[in-house]
Design goal:
Elements: H1 3-15, E1 21-30, H2 33-40, H3 44-61, E2 65-70, E3 73-78, H4 81-97, E4 109-118, H5 128-138, E5 145-148, H6 149-153, E6 163-171, E7 178-185, H7 217-229, E8 232-236, H8 243-253, E9 262-266, H9 276-284, H10 294-302, E10 307-312, H11 318-331, E11 335-341, E12 351-354, H12 370-382, H13 393-402, H14 407-416, H15 422-427, H16 429-433, H17 447-455, H18 460-469, E13 476-477, H19 478-485, H20 490-498, E14 503-506, E15 511-514, H21 517-529, H22 533-551, H23 564-583, H24 587-596, H25 598-603, H26 607-624, H27 630-646, H28 650-667, H29 670-678, H30 681-686, H31 690-707, H32 714-727, H33 730-745, H34 748-751, H35 755-767, H36 770-786, H37 790-806, H38 810-827, H39 835-849, H40 851-862, H41 866-874
Parallel strand pairs: 4-5, 8-11, 8-12, 9-10, 10-11
Antiparallel strand pairs: 1-3, 1-4, 2-3, 5-7, 6-7, 13-15, 14-15
């Protein structure tokens, strides 16, 4: 008797001796049998017969009782659960190893097992356990073996190499409870399948996030709104920007809006373009059908459904994915696609939404920024639940800003907090920016790996532009990029923007372009590897000089009043260029760059930073033995003296002023020499040598007249006018200042400060002329704020406080005094020669108001930002003109009488 005949005999015998008690039921059928029959035609019957033979032999060998065979289906009962599972794995291996007419003709059989109590009657079972087994089988895919939890519990010991993988709880059709399903895993069997075909209560397969989703409230609202309006929305951003997490978070909230489900497909693992449709089909639980293109199966399935399809990580298969999405959107009117990618898909009607980094700005109502909140949450987890100390918050904020709020970078930084304190992490943040192997197999593993993946997709021009752009420290306009590259950058720049390696940010006056810091760090490393660093950074230095010069000129190239506001956006680039000048570039270029930031450093409270940069340039000059002309050294030393004076280092200021004088004399430049000597008065007064300061000022004015460079002596006039004012020689001081007004107006670098008006206001205060004092000081304050001279605005606030005290407004005076001194502290600048005067005026107001009232108002003013304090000062009403004024004020546009500077005789004591 043949093996097949013997198997049929055994099966018939078993039918009359069916197992009782705990019975394991098996259902099987061929997935896509109808499509397979259509494909094979007359060739289907031999395939079906071979399938039946293989299955019967296996079930017979494992003591299975065949109850029903109908078409391509089997219903078998086993007394032993282990034997049933062994039968299934044996059958699957037999099917896989059999020689079929063609590979496409191989039947893919799905199998499902369930164990329950059953007693046979008249050669059959009448129990709901049979129906449960049938539903388990219906949840399986071709080639897959599923079993219920009851079957898994009754398996005593699986053969070596076999195991059961827990697939979680699922709701089977027609059953109210949820069944835990297991997949049989064994050598020779497929192991990766779509989700089981079950009736889950929640129609989605969105991945469960291992960590909480932080922030992005506004972004979620905008993205939900866009999905409601458009059928294809692509979230575009750099690697690690949080595209996937945001897409999943928004899709989760939209589950109830799509009755036919929200389905997620991660395309990162699809390396073969030909399999892109199979990867998408897996989201819906679909498998390929024999002889039918997968796109046809997808369109047929979704044609009458209202569902949301989330396609994650589309960027590396765009050419294959685009036509598939086009076809699905055309054939499935109820389908909406939400994609994530580093670049747009490029289809008509696509809504491209660029994801911003997490906000690094704290909300107005308090609390941490989104970026810091993410760091805090992950740091708590990394530290085993220990929350961050409040003292660590500045360090967390520093890390978040340095990492540009990039979520992947923040996650990696938080992981370092297992080993480092927040302060240590902030100090080592550069290591994180460059961490990780560039060829990591997991492109999301490190920052370097995720940027490297995108970099490898670039052509030569775009790759070079990425490297060159890394020398910019902040956002820049198109003309700056063109200057740097020396060619039209539009085409390669468009590639970088599309691939989210460069951020395009529209502004009111145009578009700026910038790199996130992690991408910039990668580009800088590639720049060095390509041997291009010196060329690119030298070009950047040249551009910085050009930009600084352009900031002081109008569209026609004419000088304009110097404004610190125009230097604010350039400062970050100038600092980057300075860094190169002190490490690998030209020290003379560095000194010129420092000169461009001369006043900016002092007005922004950064005089100490300016000194540090100058010291670094001196060190490089010495170490490289670079020749620097005496004129350029004189200018640097003169600038250094001014920084030191503002920083309260008066002895250093005098020392560098003397060095500047020696270098200027060696250079033989009369104008420069006079400018250096004109600044000598300040450090001399600051160290208490008032008489010597006055003598120096007169001698400088005399020298300027002899050399015919009177305009360069302007600061000597200012210092001398201050000395005369403090000594009570008010007419002499006013005459000097009247002579200085046209000189100040003619010098773009000085006229925005309105020093003449500031000093005339102080003279008017000493005369008791509140009308003149009010108008001079208001003019000075408005101009200083308009042109960004913050440190000098502090002086003017104090002076207007004095005017308020004299005008019967001591409460306002106390507030302005508090605001002025608090801002001076924030700017870390010395009061210099005004220190004694301000202290005297504060004491007068304190005596009038009393300590308690003065301190309360002073504290109230200290809490005001500079802009609000200025608003208070400018809101002070004009004094009553009828009260009488000694002088009419000279406004900004007034034509003040020009009084020649009078040089006193040498033998006169000053």
């Amino acid at each position: 008797m043949s093996p097949l005949a013997w198997a049929e005999v055994k099966g018939l015998a078993a039918r009359f001796h069916l197992p009782s008690g705990q019975v394991t039921f098996l259902f099987t059928d061929i997935e896509g049998s109808t499509r397979l029959a259509q494909l094979l035609g007359d060739g289907y019957r031999p395939v079906l017969n071979d399938h039946r033979k293989l299955m019967r032999l296996t079930f017979s060998d494992c003591d299975g009782a065949e109850l029903l065979t109908e078409g391509d289906s089997f219903f078998v009962a086993f007394a032993d659960a282990t034997a049933a599972l062994t039968a299934c794995v044996t059958a699957q291996r037999a099917l896989a190893g059999h020689t079929w007419p063609t590979p496409a003709a191989r039947p893919r059989v799905r199998m499902g097992l369930h164990t329950g109590y059953a007693v046979p009657h008249a050669g059959e079972y009448a129990t709901y356990e049979v129906h449960r087994a049938a539903r388990v089988a219906a949840a399986a895919h071709g080639g897959q073996v599923l079993c219920s939890a009851s079957t898994a519990r009754r398996v005593e010991e699986l053969p070596e190499g076999l195991s059961l993988m827990d697939l979680g709880l699922h709701r089977l059709r027609d059953f109210d409870d949820r069944e835990r399903l297991f997949q049989l895993v064994a050598p020779g069997l497929e192991s990766r399948f779509p989700r089981p075909r079950t009736m889950d209560a929640t129609p989605h397969n969105l991945p469960a996030a291992p960590t909480s989703f932080i922030g992005r409230v506004d972004e979620q609202v905008k993205l939900r709104q866009l999905i409601g309006e458009q059928r294809l929305v692509t979230v575009v951003g750099a690697g690690g920007a949080g595209k996937s997490r945001l897409a999943v978070a928004v899709a989760t909230e939209l589950v109830d809006s799509y009755p036919d489900g929200v389905w997620f497909a991660d395309l990162a693992s699809v390396t073969d373009p030909a399999l892109i449709a199979v990867g998408v089909a897996g989201a819906f639980g679909l498998r390929p059908e024999p002889g039918r293109p997968m796109p046809d199966t997808l369109v047929e399935h979704a044609a009458r459904r209202k569902c949301l399809l989330v396609l994650d990580t589309c960027d590396h298969q765009l050419s294959s994915l685009a036509p598939l999405i086009t076809r699905m959107l055309a054939g499935c009117p109820g389908l909406t696609v939400l994609a994530t990618s580093r670049e747009p898909i490029g289809l008509p009607g696509e809504a491209v939404w660029r994801i911003p980094s997490l906000s690094v700005t704290a909300p107005a109502d308090g609390g941490p920024s989104d970026a810091v909140a993410l760091l805090l949450d992950r740091a708590t987890a990394a530290r085993g639940g220990r929350r961050a100390d409040p003292a660590e918050m500045p360090h967390f904020d520093r890390v978040a800003r340095r990492l540009d709020g990039l979520p992947l970078a923040l996650e990696l930084a938080a992981a370092r907090l297992r080993l480092l304190a927040a302060g240590q992490l902030a100090e080592r943040i550069e290591d994180l920016l460059l961490s990780g192997p560039g060829d990591s197999p997991n492109r999301h593993e490190t920052l370097s790996a995720t940027v490297s993946w995108s970099y490898k997709t670039l052509g030569p021009r775009a790759a070079k532009l990425l490297r060159y752009l890394s020398v910019f420290a902040g956002p820049v306009e198109l003309d700056a990029i063109e200057w740097l590259l020396g060619a039209d950058p539009l085409d390669p720049l468009a590639v970088l923007v599309d691939k989210s390696l460069v951020q395009a940010e529209p502004t009111a006056v145009g578009t700026t372009y910038r790199m996130l810091d992690p991408i910039r760090a990668y580009g800088q490393r590639k720049l060095v590897q390509a041997g291009e660093e010196e060329a690119a950074r030298d070009r950047h230095v040249a551009w910085c000089r050009h930009a600084a010069e352009r900031a002081g000129r109008d569209a026609e190239g004419r000088p304009v009043t110097l404004s610190m506001h125009t230097l604010d956006p350039l400062a970050v680039e100038l600092r980057a260029a300075l860094r190169w000048s002190t490490t690998g570039g030209d020290v003379r270029e560095g000194l010129r760059l420092a000169g461009a930031l001369d006043q900016w450093w002092r007005e922004r409270g950064l005089a100490r930073e300016g000194r540090v940069w100058l010291y670094r340039l001196y060190e490089r000059m010495t170490s490289t033995d670079a020749p620097v002309p005496s004129r350029e050294l004189a200018m640097a030393y003169h600038m250094h003296a001014a920084h030191a004076g503002v920083d309260g280092e008066f002895a250093e200021a005098l020392r560098f002023s003397q060095r500047a004088e020696a270098a200027a004399r060696q250079a033989g430049d009369p104008g420069l020499l006079v400018r250096v000597l004109a600044g000598r008065g300040a450090p001399l007064v600051d160290i208490g040598l008032t008489a010597e300061a006055e003598r120096s000022c007169w001698e400088t004015l005399r020298l300027a007249a002899e050399l015919d460079v009177e305009a360069d002596a302007l600061f000597a006039v200012f210092y001398l006018a201050q000395l005369l004012w403090r000594r009570g020689e008010l007419d002499e001081s006013a005459n000097l200042l009247a002579s200085a007004r046209p000189l100040e107006a003619a010098r773009p670098a000085e006229r925005g400060r309105r020093t003449v008006d500031m000093l005339l206001g102080l003279v008017a205060l000493e005369r008791g002329d509140l009308v003149a004092a009010h108008e001079h000081l208001q003019v000075a304050l408005r101009s200083r704020m308009a042109y960004g001279f913050g440190a000098r605005a502090v002086e003017t606030l104090n002076a207007i406080g004095v005017r308020c005290h004299l005008g019967g407004l001591p409460e306002t005076a106390a507030m302005l005094f508090g605001a002025s001194e608090a801002e001076r502290g924030r700017l870390r600048c010395s009061a210099g020669s005004y220190a004694v005067y301000w202290a005297e005026q504060h004491s007068r107001t304190r005596a009038l108001l009393g300590d308690r009232r003065f301190d309360a108002l002073y504290a109230e003013g200290s809490a005001l930002p500079l802009t609000e304090a200025v608003a208070v000062a400018l809101a002070v009403e004009h004094p009553d003109l009828s009260s009488g004024g000694v002088y009419a004020a000279q406004s900004a546009a007034s034509e003040a009488p020009t009084v020649p500077i009078r040089v006193k005789p040498n033998n006169q004591d000053h």
